[in-house]
Write a structure and sequence with these properties.
Length: 116
């Protein structure tokens, strides 16, 4: 019985390889979280830069000119989701939910992180 207990204890002790393996897994998770924070911070910074540029243009040119330029840019740009149509808009008036192709295909934007 004592030999079995000694053998069991020797197999359960934390050897350097097991500690390193556990630490490696934990460090990879922490690295992933840190990279996600960086991506989120960049996205937030881009958002505020865009807002600043828009507000500066409104102060400099006036809202009418800025909105006209933005409307012209939107009309010239291709549709992001050409498969989406507003045909379900009439059915939505009847207070029944209408499933669009957007609901089925895109739940939320996904950021691709650099693999390591």
């Amino acid at each position: 019985m004592l030999k079995w207990l000694i053998r069991w204890a020797s197999h359960q002790c934390a050897d350097p390889e097991r500690l390193a393996d556990r630490a490696l897994r934990e460090l990879r998770v922490k690295l992933y979280r840190a990279e996600q924070l960086i991506l989120d911070a960049r996205m937030e910074a881009d958002y505020y830069c865009t807002r600043i540029v828009f507000c500066e243009a409104v102060v400099r040119k006036g809202i009418e000119q800025v909105s006209d330029v933005r409307r012209a840019c939107q009309e010239m740009s291709p549709r992001l989701w050409p498969e989406l149509e507003l045909s379900g808009a009439r059915a939505a008036v009847s207070s029944e939910p209408v499933a669009t192709t957007l609901d089925a295909t895109v739940s939320r934007p996904v950021l691709a992180a650099k693999g390591g």
